[in-house]
Amino acid sequence: xxxxxxxxxxxxxxxxxxxxxxxxxxxxxxxxxxxxxxxxxxxxxxxxxxxxxxxxxxxxxxxxxxxxxxxxxxxxxxxxxxxxxxxxxxxxxxxxxxxxxxxxxxxxxxxxxxxxxxxxxxxxxxxxxxxxxxxxxxxxxxxxxxxxxxxxxxxxxxxxxxxxxxxxxxxxxxxxxxxxxxxxxxxxxxxxxxxxxxxxxxxxxxxxxxxxxxxxxxxxxxxxxxxxxxxxxxxxxxxxxxxxxxxxxxxxxxxxxxxxxxxxxxxxxxxxxxxxxxxxxxxxxxxxxxxxxxxxxxxxxxxxxxxxxxxxxxxxxxxxxxxxxxxxxxxxxxxxxxxxxxxxxxxxxxxxxxxxxxxxxxxxxxxxxxxxxxxxxxxxxx
Length: 382
Hints:
With 382 residues, the chain is mostly helical. It is built from 15 helices and six strands. The strands form two sheets. Strands 1-4-3 form a three-stranded mixed β-sheet. Helix 6 packs across helix 15 and helix 11 crosses helix 15. The longest helix has 24 residues. The protein starts with a helix and ends with a strand.
């Protein structure tokens, strides 16, 4: 074999080896942990809405099998996105009027009372049941009397389990989803696939409520803030700080914001990397916005591992609620990002009004949970 041919073959082998090494060394997941990196990932410049939707929908396909949803979260169709956004805004607008908000407050109190009829209650089941019932009765018009506590508890646990199982690639049986939909369509008979609207509102809100109640139950200043909001659930009261110095009482908005910062219900936001097939071995498969890590950066003040709602006071020069990323950022930011915190605060306030140490107390477990991890937590009748 001529010397030139040997050199060419060797050179080609070196190039192929370098390409393969590059492919094998490229991580499949690329994490973005800084505030700037998270913002850039979630709101890239010069990207069409179709491309943004596609990048979001691909990682969410597991939810199609798990929960049967067909909304914008699992679709790259701009028309589905527009329809979902329009429908969600109609619902939010209806409960944001003076009469609509007053009705939502009353519905929330009725839901809390409905699920407090036992001597001892599993805490996570209680908060999940209350939150789902508020979404159903408050947003979608379900009759509270139709919400049998056992059925509601089953649906919330099944949704929770299937969400977790979908992340772990566990086999999902269709029978459970059929039972979920049997109850959901009975409660909301006038909509096609109501879970499309229920899941985004319920999934985030119950965990924010559960964690905020824990912190507020431990701190009399936080408890007082929710007591005041329970008596006067207005925008002004939501944002009101009380006093200054060591006796300063944080606003309800600040408390909820700090829960969203330190315990974001959406800890990671994933986007698929969509490139031609020949580039795929050399770029990550997914980009992940590490919301949890980014919200512990110095941009959010000092001692960011600690729970401190006063960091949102103007004197601390801290970011405002709309600079948190638990609801996403950019063009695909959650349409309910402004409405959900005060709505969650109503749920928290109504629960806190019952945990007075006279009628009911909160029995703590070993640690604060997330979607799971609430073992040992309960509400006890005194």
